[in-house]
Automatic annotation (TrEMBL):
This is Alpha,alpha-trehalose-phosphate synthase. Belongs to the glycosyltransferase 20 family. GO terms for molecular function: alpha,alpha-trehalose-phosphate synthase (UDP-forming) activity. It comes from the Bacteria. Pfam families: Glyco_transf_20. InterPro entries: Glyco_trans_20. CDD domains: GT20_TPS.
Length: 473
């Protein structure tokens, strides 16, 4: 039976944030993307509210904001400690971002992770109707599809991973690796941002589980799953509009006035060790050291809202960055110039768009990133007649699409310094040519394209239906 186009889409993610438009500084790229996807269908966005309760009851709070219905539950303190702060952020996140040195393996973490996924399955199952398609998001909920199958769900189930998938040898460090990968065969479709992450997943399934490949499907025992690379996008036209909105223009003028004729370099990142902020500061310091004639001609604005403040490794990076910014400013600043402005807070999307537009250089240099939508937002916000230059890490998923950025190795301070100098001296004609090609990509493969590409695969005819159609009567 083919999927009924009038059926609903159920999206499930760890956190659910009711859409608040451009006034929400905390609204991340994924939240905006999922809300956009849900507006195309009748459906529900289910997940954790972010709040704590004394005892998990499964009580659901429903809200409707800007055309999106959300259904949220509160979690117990132990759930938050073990499932979220523990297994998700101290085990899976560092390992999947190649930081084996920071990954922690505790039975309590793994147990709490499994318990919360079971609780999610128990709670959301009654909300799912027979013809619904279910789209589960990210590394917090790997086993949720399997738990829904155990509870009798026969719906089309899709899973999308928004972070990198590590190479086979790296994933094998995880004690639960085989069980985790095996559980993913409960899904009908699995999406990754890049071919690299897809190939790493496929390599593990083939080599460690004995799966086999037929076309774009992996087969293990009696289950087959379609695997696809489908890079997430932004609403490029909408974001470009934000840059010239009232608040966008105001932010642009404020940045230009504050720069006092200097060129501004901007970085906007969640405070996380995967974003390469320490390496960015050191690369910028090398630039200042190697090009003293440029010292008072540029300034770096680094916006880094704090995240996961209760996890020790995040407290450490904040302390390290504060120390680095202080040392660099102390060593190079003058009475009328400070080389780094380091800000630990978030800003609304329209304000950010104006800031991006005012920046001569967008510095997006993660050490490892599933996609990185800041790179795309920076491009979308530029003035077509006088665009800035995007300097982008080769290890961001966005580098696979934005090949006309200045691509660098973020571990190399020398390469970063050279890239900054190249960008500052780049002729206007070359900046326009690079920007035009990148803008074409992010406009063509935008958020609507991403949503449609994945949901078309999820909501298409089932494998069994295709087989039935080819069998003789």
């Amino acid at each position: 039976m083919e999927f009924d186009p009038l059926s609903r889409l159920i999206i499930i993610s760890n956190r659910v944030s009711a859409p608040k438009g451009s006034d929400s500084g905390a609204q991340g790229g994924l939240a905006v993307a999922l809300a956009s996807a849900l507006r195309e269908y009748k459906g529900i966005w289910f997940g954790w509210s972010g709040d704590q309760t004394d005892e998990y009851t499964g009580q659901i709070t429903f809200q409707r904001n800007e055309g999106v219905t959300t259904a949220t539950v509160d979690l117990e303190e132990q759930d938050i400690d073990e499932y979220y702060n523990g297994y998700a952020n101290r085990t899976l996140w560092p390992l999947f971002h190649y930081r084996v040195d920071l990954a922690e393996y505790e039975r309590e973490f793994a147990g709490g992770y499994q318990r919360v996924n079971e609780r999610f399955a128990d709670t959301v199952q009654p909300l799912i109707e027979e013809e619904d398609a279910v789209w589960i998001q990210d590394y917090h909920l790997f086993p949720l599809g399997e738990e829904l199958r155990k509870r009798g769900a026969t719906n089309r189930l899709g899973f999308f991973l928004h972070i990198p998938w590590p190479p086979r040898r790296l994933l094998s460090i995880l004690p639960e690796a085989q069980a985790l990968v095996r559980s993913l065969f409960a899904y009908d479709v699995i999406g990754f941002h890049t071919d690299e992450w897809l190939h790493s997943f496929r390599d593990y399934a083939l080599a460690e589980l004995g799966a086999r490949m037929e076309g774009d499907e992996l087969i293990l025992d009696d289950r087959r799953v379609k695997v696809m690379a489908c890079p997430i996008g932004i609403d490029a036209k909408e974001f470009a509009g934000l840059a010239t909105s009232t608040r966008g223009r105001l932010a642009f003028r404020q940045m230009r006035d504050a720069a006092v004729g200097r060129d501004m370099i901007v970085g906007v990142d969640r405070l996380d060790y995967s974003k390469g902020l320490e390496e960015r500061f050191l690369g910028y310091e090398r630039f200042l050291n190697e090009h003293p004639e440029e010292r008072k001609e540029v300034t770096l604005l680094q916006i880094a809202p704090p995240s996961r403040a209760t996890v020790g490794s995040y407290q450490k990076i904040r302390s390290t960055l504060e120390g680095l910014a202080g040392r660099i400013n102390g060593g190079y600043a003058d009475i009328d110039w400070v080389p780094i402005r380091y800000v630990n807070q978030g800003y609304p999307r329209d304000v950010l768009a104006g800031i991006y537009r005012a920046a001569k250089i967008g510095l997006v240099t993660p050490l490892r990133d599933g996609m990185n939508l800041v790179a795309k937002e920076y491009v979308a916000a530029q003035n077509p007649e006088d665009p800035g230059v995007l300097i982008l890490s080769r290890f961001a998923g966005a580098a696979c699409q934005l090949t006309d950025a200045v691509l660098i190795n973020p571990y190399s301070a020398e390469e970063m310094s050279d890239a900054i100098m190249l960008a500052l001296r780049m002729p206007r004609e070359e900046r326009i040519e690079r920007w035009t090609k990148m803008m074409d990509v992010i406009t063509r493969e935008d958020i609507g394209w991403w949503r449609k590409t994945f949901t078309d695969a999820l909501m298409g005819p089932t494998v069994e239906t295709e087989q039935e159609q080819t069998e003789p009567a």
